[in-house]
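Researcher: Please translate sequence to structure tokens.
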Amino acid sequence: MRIVSWNINSITARADRLAAWIEANTPDVVCLQELKTTTEAFPAQRFNDAGYAVAAHGQGRWNGVAILSRVGLDHIQRDLTDQPAFNNATEARAIAATCNGVRIWSVYVPNGRDITDPHYEYKLNFLGALAAEAANRDDSSPYAITGDFNVCPTDDDIYDIDAWEGTTHTTDAERAALNELQETNLTEVYPRALKYDQPFTFWDYRNLDFPKNRGLRIDLLLANPSLMTHVTDAYVDRNERKGKGASDHAPLVVDTNL
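Model: Translation complete:
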């Protein structure tokens, strides 16, 4: 069973790339983030025709998450149970489904913007709600939370920690919130390095960040013991970040023997 997480940065702009990647890599479950479209406008039929059931949760110009599965898509839940609101609105940032017996969440954690911005506190509250959601799970079967966490777990997960001093993604509070989530007995599936030592997942479009490998590792998959024991490989498909029209994130691929 191959599970993939990918911040697609607009499904409308990158549906062709996603379809081609799926055909070439045959994933069983694809978790998407940053759809930038409504639930109704998601091109579900295109992926249905390719053999994938689709559960999407979108709100238009911003945010949005989805799960595509060719091994079953049951017990769909949109939003965390106690998901915090921002500006009095619950944003489309979390969706879960059971796929071949594996309970999977696709999440798009708020960016935080700046440590003085209300969005930063919203980010911490969202991570807290995610930890509460995970703590209430049924651990008798495999379970995963994957997506764009907008947190670098360690200083090694950023090309230059000094360049990001005092900014979001690297603060002690964000890392503590991520650790709180992992303390619900979840372990990160760490991807092996391919071209470079650090398996970054995001490179900004600006300043030639991708050719210079000025990246961040912010797309993660956290697994409970029932899933972790079945993991056989994990890597970031850096090649998908290349070329015209690519997302600024690359797919995180986790293979299991389920």
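Researcher: Any highlights?
Model: DSSP finds five helices and 14 strands in the chain.
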